[in-house]
Amino acid sequence: MHVRSTQCRQEYRRPISLAEVEVLVRSVPLDGGASHPEQLGGAAGALGSVLTAATRGLDLPCRSDDADLWFAEAPAELERAKALCAHCPIQAECLAGALRREEPWGVWGGEIFERGVIVHRKRPRGRPSKADLARDRAYATKSA
Question: What is the dihedral of CA 124, 129, 133, 139, to 10 degrees?
Answer without folding.
Answer: -60
